[in-house]
Specification:
The protein is built from four helices and seven strands, in the order αββαααβββββ. The protein is an alpha+beta fold. The protein is rod-shaped.
Length: 177
């Protein structure tokens, strides 16, 4: 079979070889990588799509982090919402502060002080006998004391509960009903 000349040789798929400059060359049956197959899309459109997809992936990732770490956060006490954890921790710290101040007053003055006297003495960093709906009270009996944090009951049918807490000279915060 005689070799074909010109465009006839380049377009023939049945003929695997053609002559270029006197040498026999293999003709590829695939489209070269640099050949335009479709109309060229402006790179600006590709750039905008990359930004859009990147933002979409980032928002999806942040939404997953929100669901995992904030919505399913462990609670401070059974039946309390995760948003209450900070408030309950603050109440526990306040009760510990009250108990330490009572212990100091018993050691120094030899008597238990009321909550108003403790606040007035400046032995605690607290300025008010309340926090986030909890009110504090101190009951004295000789050299023994009990500090209580009380919150009003949650509305009927509410999944949130507000635990009442108490501390005494043992320095252990406990929940009470």
């Amino acid at each position: 079979m005689a070799p074909r000349k010109g465009s006839e040789a380049a377009t023939s798929l049945a003929e695997p070889f053609r002559r270029v400059g006197g040498n026999l060359t293999v003709v590829s049956f695939r489209t070269p990588a640099n050949a335009g197959v479709a109309a060229a899309v402006p790179t600006f459109h590709n750039f905008l799509m990359k930004i859009f997809v990147s933002l979409l992936v980032a928002v999806g990732f942040l939404w997953g982090v929100y669901l995992i770490y904030l919505k399913r956060m462990p609670t401070a006490a059974e039946g309390t919402a995760s948003t209450q954890a900070i408030s309950i921790s603050g109440v526990r710290m306040d009760l510990l502060q009250i108990a330490k101040a009572e212990r100091n007053s018993i050691m120094v003055d030899g008597r238990c002080l009321s909550l108003d006297e403790l606040l007035a003495s400046g032995s605690m960093s607290m300025s008010r006998p309340e926090r986030d709906g909890y009110t504090y009270s101190v009951q004295c009996s000789g050299n023994d004391f009990t500090a209580t944090a009380h919150h009003a009951a949650a509305p009927a049918g509410s999944p949130i509960r507000y635990p009442n807490m108490v501390i005494d000279q043992s320095m252990q915060v406990r929940e009470v009903e």
